Amino acid sequence: MFFYYFNYMIKKYYSILFAFVLFALPVKGIYGQNNEYIPSIEKSRAEKDVYMRDSAFSPFNFKGKVQFEPLKYFPVDTNFVFKSKLIPFQHKDTVQIYGTKGEGRKVIKYGYVTIEINKKQYRINVYKGTSKQGEEYYSIWFTDKTTGRESYYVGRYIDFELNTDKDFIYTIDFNLAYNPYCAYSYAYSCAIPPKEEYIPVSITAGEKIFHNAETE
Question: Which of 55, 99, 143, 167 is the most exposed place for a label (fewest CB within 10 A)?
Answer without folding.
Answer: 167
